[in-house]
Amino acid sequence: LMRVTQDWSEESGWSLQAYYDHTYRINVNQLEVTRNTIDLDFRHHFKLGERNAIVWGAAVRHTSDRTVAGAAAAFDPTSRAMNTFSGFIQDTITIVPDKLFLMAGSKFEHNDVTGFEVQPSARVWYTPDDRQTVWAGVSRPVRVPSRTDHDVIAALTYVDTGLLFGGPASGVFVPLNLVGDDDSVSEELWAVEGGYRVRITDRLTLDATAFYHQYDELIFAPISIVGVYTNLASAETYGTTLSIQYQAADNWRLTAAYSSPDVQIHGP
């Protein structure tokens, strides 16, 4: 890992990071995976006038693997190289000094799996005084299908063909497989969130948040004689989170939290 930074002032500067990673993994059924990853990332931040703080960056990643089939899992093709090119830009806008702020931006990515992806986000927050903050945000991230989603061939278990079709045992066993699908697309999430933070006293802080997340194109992995990954499922999650933090002493902090998420899955 190498990182170089240059700060021209408190309001502007840049950073450059590069890393190389090599892994070798062998799992319980003797599937072997050797992977090499090279990543280069550049970021630059600066002030534009009195009200705009800009951050932008670009990155490139190359990853390649070599696999050896195990007793119950394999990849087809056995080797694969993938490239990802990405960039982002974000502007933090001071609408009312010391009171109202807006942060908006987007990530742009091109990968070898699903092609071009856009991931926008926006967040606004209001601070009526130095003890309170009210905020809301919306974002659309994606999850690009993994090498497993596209290329795996995995035998989860073996079943008797007679019992599988509701008859008497035949003594003939076949595998129940999961097979990757080259047509898998990115899973999508629309996230809407909001919250309120108040410093009740110098030592006691309360945080309350609410969220609604809508998931589409979720990858579904059926179990059958040949079960192929497909983007057939969707889901939504929503709920609230409440946390309290108490600074009992300079070196002693107490935190309690409660969450009440609800998950609804639609489709398979």
Structural description of this entry:
Helices cover 3% and strands 73% of the residues. The model has no long low-confidence stretch (mean pLDDT 93). The two termini are 42 Å apart. Strands 1, 2, 3, 4, 6, 7, 8, 9, 10, 13, 14, 16, 17 and 18 form a 14-stranded antiparallel β-sheet that branches. It has a 4-stranded mixed β-sheet with strand order 5-11-12-15. With 268 residues, the protein is mainly beta. It has helices at residues 147-151, 161-164, and strands spanning 2-9, 12-26, 32-48, 52-68, 73-75, 79-96, 100-111, 115-129, 132-139, 142-143, 152-160, 173-179, 187-199, 204-220, 227-228, 230-249, 252-259, 262-266. It contains 2 helices and 18 strands. The longest helix is centred in the middle third of the chain and has 5 residues, at 147-151.
Task: Walk me through the topology.
Layout: E1 2-9, E2 12-26, E3 32-48, E4 52-68, E5 73-75, E6 79-96, E7 100-111, E8 115-129, E9 132-139, E10 142-143, H1 147-151, E11 152-160, H2 161-164, E12 173-179, E13 187-199, E14 204-220, E15 227-228, E16 230-249, E17 252-259, E18 262-266
Parallel strand pairs: 12-15
Antiparallel strand pairs: 1-2, 2-3, 3-4, 4-6, 5-11, 6-7, 7-8, 8-9, 9-13, 10-13, 11-12, 13-14, 14-16, 16-17, 16-18
User: How far apart are the first and last residues' alpha carbons, in Å?
Assistant: 42 Å
User: Hey, roughly how much beta strand do the residues contain?
Assistant: over 45%
Percent of residues in helices comes to: under 10%
**Poorly predicted sequence stretches spanning 5 or more consecutive residues:** none
Give the count of helical stretches. 2
Quantity of strands, as a count: 18
